[in-house]
TrEMBL record:
Location(s), subcellular: Cell inner membrane; Cell membrane
Main subcellular location of this protein, as a coarse class: membrane
An example Gene Ontology CC term for this record: plasma membrane
Name recorded for this polypeptide: Small-conductance mechanosensitive channel
PANTHER family hit by this protein: SMALL-CONDUCTANCE MECHANOSENSITIVE CHANNEL
Single annotated GO MF: mechanosensitive monoatomic ion channel activity
UniProt membrane topology term: Multi-pass membrane protein
């Protein structure tokens, strides 16, 4: 039997148990280092009290006080040992064999160990446990009645952790409270809202009431369905609008928006002069609800503006502007000047006269795009071009085999789709907006009148287009080193000029 002078017989064994437990749990439980240090300090204090009691007993001084101090010290040493054994067993040993129990249940079992150790020490001290149990039963009944709420919170927290209906990290909604679960304690569950506020919700309230788990990872689709509402004039056919919104949202790349299930648009109701629509999509990250809603609204608005569809206003609203005619003329002149500046920066139209540029400016159509939208798609037939006024885009080329390739990036002042406008040829690349893009669209009809009045423009424009095509071929050859040079020469200036004449019916 181990014995150390002046220490109780239990002290050496308790010390060995503490040291072994520390070696076992110190590395895996780095996050609980402060708790381990506090328990170690408590154990050291108990050892010191045990040693002091031994010194007092050896000198026969204050024996009653020394006996009490020793019993309290031994009791404290046992509490520390139970604490470390509990940590080692529930937090290290069981997880290593892939067994986990809830934190509250582990704490309850440790507390039962404390109580059992207390009864054992009382029995060792000569206390009759039968009388104590009878008294404690009455005391327990009184405490149970007076602590109904506390016990309800305790059992509620235990049930939440054991049935996994709520886990740390889940996003939940309770009435008007929404946030992320950060902790489940005996009495309460802590929820941090998006505003950084920490809400304390009693566990009994969660057990009695109703709450919603957002983006439940155990669901078939671990996402949260969101709704974007907007009103459109009754003159717009619902079928056309729904197809337009759904197709554009399905093609766009929007962060945190699920592709499956796809977004869907429905006609919900009618109002005075408008139809009320709702766009529903599935959000993958509950924390980013408002920013993602904003992104989706931007896409919807850009889609409507490109198609010439305006959001409806209530027919009962009357908007009066003083000196309205002069105001409208000022706005139109400012917009026309902006369009002329955009056209003047394009090399393709450098040979046009001022009146011809004015004509083109009047035929430009506002075409905004949200980040992730597709401006043009490779292989598509579209007889128009885009002039980028603000924002950035990327051109991607999909070879017959292999992954798609990034050809180039362009910003303000760039043009896309000029080959399709001038020759009717399919798009050579897919162009994607990497930011919100402000652009103008020029259709074939807007340019047709000019080139029919001046057929010679076909020859002068063909040289510029041929240069553009050769540059595109060079970009492609960066990925296709063995491409036939003869195939490239077929896109010469003469061939481009012939295509322009045929497309606009000049021959």
């Amino acid at each position: 039997m181990l014995s150390i002078p002046y220490l109780s017989a239990e002290a050496p064994y308790a010390t060995i148990a503490i040291v072994v437990a520390l070696l076992f749990i110190l590395r895996p439980l780095k996050a609980m280092r402060r708790s381990l240090i506090n328990t170690s300090v408590f154990f050291s204090a108990c050892l010191l009290g045990d040693l002091l009691a031994g010194l007092m007993l050896s000198e026969h001084r204050l024996s009653a006080v020394a006996h009490l101090l020793r019993q309290m010290s031994i009791f404290g040493e046992g509490l520390a040992v139970i604490r470390f054994i509990g940590l080692a067993w529930f937090n290290v040993a069981l997880p290593r064999v892939h067994l986990r129990i809830s934190g509250i249940l582990a704490d309850i079992l440790v507390i039962i160990g404390y109580i059992g150790w207390a009864f054992f020490r009382l029995n060792q001290s000569g206390v009759e446990l039968t009388h104590l149990f009878a008294t404690s039963a009455i005391l327990t009944a009184v405490l149970a009645i007076s602590m109904q709420d506390t016990l309800g919170n305790l059992l509620g927290g235990l049930a939440l952790q054991m049935d996994n209906s709520l886990e740390i990290g889940d996003w939940i909604k309770i009435d008007d409270l929404s946030g992320q679960v950060t902790d489940i304690q005996w009495r309460y569950t802590a929820i941090v809202t998006r505003n950084g506020e920490k809400a304390i919700v009693p566990n009994s309230q969660l057990m009695k009431g109703r709450y919603y788990v957002l983006c439940d990872k155990n669901a078939e689709y671990p996402a949260w369905r969101r709704s974007i509402e907007f009103n459109i004039d009754l003159a717009v056919p619902p079928g056309r609008l729904i197809r337009l919104i759904e197709s554009d949202l399905a093609a766009a790349t929007i962060p945190h928006v699920a592709q499956t299930p796809p977004p869907n648009c429905v006609l919900m109701s009618f109002g005075p002069g408008y139809a009320h629509y709702v766009l529903r999509y599935w959000l993958l990250d509950a924390k980013l609800d408002d920013p993602t809603d904003s992104e989706v609204r931007s896409h919807v608005l850009a889609t409507l503006q490109r198609s010439g569809i305006r959001l409806a206003t209530d027919d009962h609203i009357i908007h009066l502007v003083k000196e309205g005619t002069a105001h409208r003329e000022t706005v139109q002149n400012r917009e026309l000047k902006r369009r002329l500046q955009a056209i003047a920066s394009i090399e393709l139209f450098a040979r046009l006269s001022d009146s011809e540029k004015q004509h083109l400016a009047e035929h430009l159509i506002n075409a905004p795009f949200a980040r992730g939208d597709i401006l043009t798609r490779q292989g598509a037939i579209a007889h128009w071009l885009y002039i980028i006024v603000d924002g950035e885009v990327e051109a991607w080329w999909q070879p017959p085999e292999g992954p798609r390739r990034l050809l180039e990036k362009r910003g303000p002042g760039s043009v896309f789709g000029e080959i399709g406008l001038m020759t009717g040829a399919p798009r050579r690349a897919t162009v994607v907006a990497t930011s919100d893009v402000e652009a103008y669209r020029l259709d074939k009809d807007g340019f047709q009148e000019i080139i029919r009045q001046r057929p010679e423009l076909a020859d002068s424009l063909s040289a510029t287009l041929a240069s553009r095509l050769r540059r595109f071929d060079d970009l492609e050859r960066g990925y296709q080193a063995g491409r036939d040079e003869q195939a490239r020469q077929t896109q010469g200036s003469a061939a481009i000029g012939k295509k322009i004449r045929e497309f606009f019916g000049l021959d």
